[in-house]
Amino acid sequence: MAQKRIPLRMCAICRQQFPKRELIRLVKNAEGQVSLDETGKKPGRGLYVCQSKDCLAQALKGGRLDKAAGTRIDADILSKLKEKVEHEPES
Ligand SMILES: [Zn+2]
């Protein structure tokens, strides 16, 4: 069966692969600043986190994302991620 190739990316926290569009993308620019990339088109080095609550919660605590990015991530970005967790409907 012919299957369309789906680009997979690895979640920085659980290290599982997910289709790119299911992941939250963060981008580190040339200045080493990390921003949230909601369009998926920002230039720079991408960093991905899957939308599982566990991963987001882990990403938010203990500086896991800072470590994954190799830099300090703005509190602004982290609070946006936190909003995403909180707005996720219960399943
Ligand atoms: Zn994950």
Task: Please give a structural write-up.
The chain starts with 7 loop residues before the first strand and ends with a helix. It has 91 residues and is of the alpha+beta class. A hairpin with a 5-residue loop joins strand 3 (23-28) and strand 4 (34-37). It has helices at residues 53-60, 64-69, 75-87; strands at residues 8-10, 17-19, 23-28, 34-37, 45-50. The radius of gyration is 13 Å and the shape is globular. Helix 1 (53-60) runs antiparallel to helix 3 (75-87). It is built from three helices and five strands; from the N terminus they run E-E-E-E-E-H-H-H. 20% of the residues are buried. Helices cover 30% and strands 24% of the residues. The protein has one domain (8-87): YlxR-like (Hypothetical Cytosolic Protein, Chain: A), CATH 3.30.1230.10. It has a three-stranded antiparallel β-sheet with strand order 4-3-5, covered by helices on one side. Strands 1-2 form a two-stranded antiparallel ribbon. Bound molecules: zinc ion (ZN). Zinc ion (ZN) binds next to loops.
Helix content: 25-40%
Morphology call: globular
Class from secondary-structure proportions:
alpha+beta
| Count of extended strands | 5
Strand content: 15-25%
Task: Give the topology, please.
Blueprint: E1 8-10, E2 17-19, E3 23-28, E4 34-37, E5 45-50, H1 53-60, H2 64-69, H3 75-87
Antiparallel strand pairs: 1-2, 3-4, 3-5
Helix pairs in contact: 1-3
Zinc ion binds near residues 11, 14, 16, 50 and 52.
Q: Which labels suit this protein?
A:
binds zinc ion, alpha+beta, Hypothetical Cytosolic Protein, Chain: A, 3 helices, two-stranded antiparallel sheet, 91 residues
